[in-house]
Amino acid sequence: MISCQRFFYAAIVRNNVHQCRHILSGAVQNRIDALVSEHDSIVEKLNAGGTQSLGKKLAKLSPVARLKEKMDELYREEESLKELLTDAKSLDDEEVADECLEELQKLDETKEKLEKRMIDSILPTDEQEMENTILEIRAGTGGDEAALFAGELLESYTKSARSQGWKVETLNITKTDLGGIKEASLSITGGGGASLYYEGDLLDDESNAIGPYGFFKYESGVHRVQRVPVNDVRIHTSACSVAVLPSPSDSQSDELLPASELRIETMRASGAGGQHVNTTDSAVRVTHIPTGITASIQDERSQHKNKTKALRLIAARVWDQRREEAARERGEARNSLMGGGDRSERIRTYNFPQDRVTDHRCKESEHGIVRLLNGSEDGLINTFAPSMRAQAREKL
Question: Which of 15, 181, 278, 281 gets the highest tally of CB atoms within 10 A of its CB?
Fold first, then answer.
């Protein structure tokens, strides 16, 4: 005889055919159904000779339509398993019943993952997630310790970007005598393909792929570090700030920065750099006159290369400011679901004595600072970004 416990579970499963469906609120279900209906309508129009201008909208709706189709398949499979379970009960076939219960449990787990993807698919999206990015790091309070930690973050982000197959270029860097970094700017470029949010290939597609900006954007803010310096016995607290900006394309930069709005100045570079420093006017400072935003580059010996880098950096800063202004005009708080995204906001604390990193936005902690900073798949970004994404799902 099949145990009462197994049949009790089977009864629960049978009486809750739509249990997982109810995890999604009615509003979310209605939104998904509406999007799928719109997707199907566009497909019909295209098949009837509709304009190709509908293609872009179809591409945005295709992921949620595929997810809904996959979910419907899972429900059909679930119904078949429950019918088989009922037959096994009537025949006292314990082996088949066990297999059915095991498969139903796996199915529930798959549906839970798929539901999260369905909710993500209807969340408001950042149109810049597939863009390249400019990542800036500045040492803050804490002197040499802040600069040293800024250097560690820079190395971590560089490794993370390269692990995704992206190109990392240093636009500007100012180092300290101890090997730390006062400030640095990186350009990270490459095609989409990174994935933060899901385990397993439920759809075997790239519907959740993101680019460099989408991958790093949650790193913007103040990073606080607590540790004992090598020349002291007391715990010091220091901080550095990170700004992650979407990087406009060349054509977008030309539109953003007409020559009439720029003031370009050349000067002699200062600091370490060898015989060419202070002998040629290779350093470049670019000012965007309407906003007063500036960018200065002196890393290259070539004035032309420094100018090119400065223009890329100032274009990203101007574009980011305009995005923020547009968001305020629409009455939207920038990154409101993720704690504001303000670069003056303390987002994370790295407590070295306790070997713990705490993200203050998602209220989660993780031990193993060295591992988290090594830029691997289980590093900082893949550890905390999914939790912040989950916050958005919970608000729905």
Answer: 181
